[in-house]
Amino acid sequence: MNFLSAFLNRARDSGTRLLITLDTSPRARQTLSWWVLLLGLLLYVTVQSLVILPPLWNRALPPEADDSLAYLVRTAQLKECFFQDCPALIDLREQFSEPVADPEALRQRQLASFPFAFYHPLFSLLLLGVSRLTGDLFSAYKVVWGGSPIFFGLSFSCFLASLWGRSAAGIGLALLAFKVFPDSGLLYCTPSNLALGLALLVWARLIVRRGNAPWVLVLSTLPLAAIHPLGGVYALISIIMAWLAAPGQTPRRMKWAMAAAAALLGAILVLAAILKKPPIFDSLAFLRIILLGRGLGAAFLANLMGLFPEIVRLKDGFFGSLPLFCLASALGYLTAPEERRLVIRRFLTFYPLVLLATLFHRDLFSGPGDLFFRMWIPLAAALFGAVGQTVAYAGRGCLALWAARHEDPDSTGAKGLAAYWPVLALAVMVGYMGNMVLAGGEQLYATREHMSLRQSLTFASRQPRRLLEESRPGDRVLYTALLPMGYYFAHGAMQRGAVYSHPAFQDTEGVGKWLSRPDIRFAVAYNPIVFHPALAGLDEKDRCVTGPQFHYSPLHRGRNYEPLGRSGSLEAADFRWLQVEPQEGPRPAFLRVWVSNPGGPAELQCRPLTGPHPAPHAAAAKTSVAANWSGWVEFPWSQAHHILGYRVIFPQTPHRLAIGGINLGDSTHRWPWAHKAVVTVMAKDPVTGRVAFSFDSAHLLPPPLDGLKATVLDDQGASVLLRLERR
Questions:
Q1: What are phi and psi of 499, to 5 degrees?
Q2: Distance (Å, rounded) from C-alpha 493 to C-alpha 468?
């Protein structure tokens, strides 16, 4: 007991000496501020990595597959056809230059023009450099994406430390770790986000140097503009930040640097406007929209209306208590050192004007408010830095209070409860931050699940390889979907001609000319099982779940479904049974089912069909599926003429079976194309219900081509590769 008492006394004395040292020693406080910043950075990188890495590496395609494939296709162009003179792009450009009167056809054609906008060359060079180590672009993108939390963490730590100081920056960074930014927020490694990270480093340097960093300003202009067109906007903001960060008159050499950066930025815009191949960014068209003002009012209203659902959806986890957030931000500014307030005040006055200007921007490929949400991140981070400043100030007040009580125990008592305001303020802020962290953590978890599910398609890389092996230069490939086309293009298929078909094109002039070309010898389409009835009629990019709701609101009603066979297989746990009915061809000797079972042992039953339902008195064939096994299981096929097909019944007990194919006879394909069979599944979910898939390859082609002989070459994964022949 005496030993424990002595130990506690020594610990208390050591703690007291440490706190007094922190209160009285500038060097100790500086060391503590570094530790707070480093711990905040470590927490940010850890939390963000835990959200990003599982969906990034546990799915075949990177998250947000449509955008990711667009980046990878443009990167492949940098290596294969810098001037966009490869056969696929020449064909698509010619096809899309045909006059179109139908607005829907025009919109779909613009959506299919994603390979042409080559506006992130520096980002593409980064991916190409990393791919020399990883061996392919897809792995390179995942590596760069996986390392993005470190880059963003360093960018925000430098930016916040330049505004508020190291301690406030560390606390603000810890809060940012649990934030989900709308749309393409920091969880996504996009060229515009990387441009933002680089811009934050530039702004931090300008603030630290009090606006006197000429070489940083000039040398950063080209990289910023080369990462993404939004980087050009950040470069312009950097020029203004150089003026805002100067406490007095701007030095002469800095004025020259600002002029040089502006001239370089202007030259880049002119070059981008006159350069036709590759088309980087049509800056003149953008300026015409701004100067003429056409549609700006409608764009402003649409963007303004788009902000509210996102703010309502995210506000609880992002701001916590909004009044308390505003109060903490205001206190952060008021308690900041006087020498920091000038640049903070200027930034917080100027940057909202930038955000106001973004509301006049409109883009076919982006939702309402997209540019606002991309660019508001620095302002939001600065406000969380203000919250961190309030916490740091209250913490320093608690240290001073502790030291005062140690030196004179009666000094604080004489002042009454008013002397303990730092303790009360710190307690309130710690509780507030805890609430934000918990709510933000829930949103991060939901976002991680969303990143895992959205557009989680699986394509087989052997398909584009086989296309290149079996085709000849001059052959053209018909694509009926954008994501498979992007995947093929990223794997070398731009070296073959291309024709894109969409149902909206069927009544347009010129579609018959392109679809009747005799050199269309191959086709790429979705596997029929990549379908869900609740998603029918939507744009291809929208046939997936929407972002997690976080907060119920009639302004935001999301989709909760993905295509059933997005990975090329059907999760048997989602269905009661699967049945197959051949439509033509010889009667098979057996039925084969490809089963993947990463779980425990399970049993499948198979019953013959004599009509809409299994024969009531027929015995069920049963087979056991071993644990951690995948392969074909076989059931005998009766030769009786009244047998129309078979129904495979899945276990009612919990299992992890996946059906990766169902075949009749000894076909080398996964699915029953030779018999043009109809495969029907009964889902447990009542909205999904009963869904039938036709494995007649002619049904994969648009009407002008459905008379061709379409031979399936490969049907593994979410896409199908076909050879087309004239009959």
A1: -130, 130
A2: 7
